[in-house]
Amino acid sequence: MNQVKQTKRTTIYDLAGLVGTSASAVSAVLNGNWKKRRISSQLAEKIIRIAEEQGYALNMQASLLRREKSHIIGMIVPKYDNRYFGSIVETFEDMARARGLFPIITCTRRDPQLEVEAARTMLSYQVECLIATGATDPDRITEMCAAAGVRSLNLDLPGALAPSVISDNFAGARELTRRILRNSEQRLGKMEPLLFIGGRGSDHNTAERIRGFREAHADLGVAVHEENILACGYAPEKAEKALDTRALGGNALPKGMFVNSTISLEGVMRWIRRSGHLDDRSLVLGCFDWDPFVTLLGNGIEMVRQDVPGMLNKVFELIESGANKPVVIQVPPLIPEAQEGLKASGAEPVISTVSS
């Protein structure tokens, strides 16, 4: 019988013999730790070349030694479950590939520990740049990147140590609030203070939206009280619980609401349908987020659409220019016009840019 002879798998000891060095030196090079061992770049290149010739499965870090640049760009995002962050991911991938870069993206669920783990792993793969999107502690990620000699930028939420690109949350919120108030006046015959719901008061974006919310009320001469601001978090169940708590406390619920994201809007709509506290025909809603399916909910819901392509264009401009000063670039958001009647006409909304 003919026997098939198995090909012997190359080991680091085989490579050490072929190179004329120690197995520990080969291991250090293949694991990317050759610089710490003070191994010369010439020896490292020789080990990698022979390893490749022998068909040895190289560690990613080791294979990168043969290139001046990795051409890998990383991004962390807090969520995949809304159209805004989904659009950021898709647009980022397209723009990165168009520039000859390979994008690596991971979701960190607004968990600071997961953000650190994700940044550490991406740095081990020698990303050329790391984009921290909506990070809870962007400065910590910047410090990690700086220690590894890697550039970093912030998107959506700003940091103090690296360039940041964000929406103009204040101007967008002020314009959205004005529109909700005017819609409320047209529908109810009077202008009453709105309820702000969703988001975290401790983060920059929510704080700026609350500031814009207050400013719009002041612009139109409407007093808004502290109990009308429910920065209860982004999760749908948190918005639903906050409305339950307010209703059970005996406080009258405003007929107009500024909802801080489509994630929070899910909880608001669930509460409205379940509780029966508000008449849909008199309820006026606005949402600082955008999803075309929101028009199917009725009520002529006003929306703010963050300019994702505009923001990512600014990110890549910063990367390509080499800028690393901790500036904050604010990109005006967009508001679709003529929300009412879109369902009936099937027409696309006209988009207007919000300006400060």
Polypeptide structure, described:
This protein folds into three domains: 12-64, 434 Repressor (Amino-terminal Domain), CATH 1.10.260; 72-162, Rossmann fold, CATH 3.40.50; 169-306 and 336-353, Response regulator (Rossmann fold), CATH 3.40.50. Helices cover 43% and strands 15% of the residues. The protein is built from 13 helices and 15 strands. It has helices at residues 12-19, 23-30, 41-53, 60-64, 83-98, 112-124, 138-147, 169-188, 204-219, 236-248, 262-275, 308-321, 342-345; strands at 72-77, 102-107, 129-133, 151-155, 164-167, 195-197, 199-200, 229-230, 232-233, 256-259, 284-287, 302-303, 328-331, 334-336, 351-353. The strands form four sheets. It has a six-stranded parallel β-sheet, sandwiched between helices. Strands 8-6-10-11-12 form a five-stranded parallel β-sheet, sandwiched between helices. Strand 3, helix 7 (138-147) and strand 4 form a beta-alpha-beta unit. The longest helix has 20 residues, at 169-188.
Tell me the layout of helices and strands.
Blueprint: H1 12-19, H2 23-30, H3 41-53, H4 60-64, E1 72-77, H5 83-98, E2 102-107, H6 112-124, E3 129-133, H7 138-147, E4 151-155, E5 164-167, H8 169-188, E6 195-197, E7 199-200, H9 204-219, E8 229-230, E9 232-233, H10 236-248, E10 256-259, H11 262-275, E11 284-287, E12 302-303, H12 308-321, E13 328-331, E14 334-336, H13 342-345, E15 351-353
Parallel strand pairs: 1-2, 1-3, 3-4, 4-5, 5-13, 6-8, 6-10, 10-11, 11-12
Antiparallel strand pairs: 7-9, 14-15
Helix pairs in contact: 1-2, 1-3, 5-12, 6-7, 8-9, 10-11
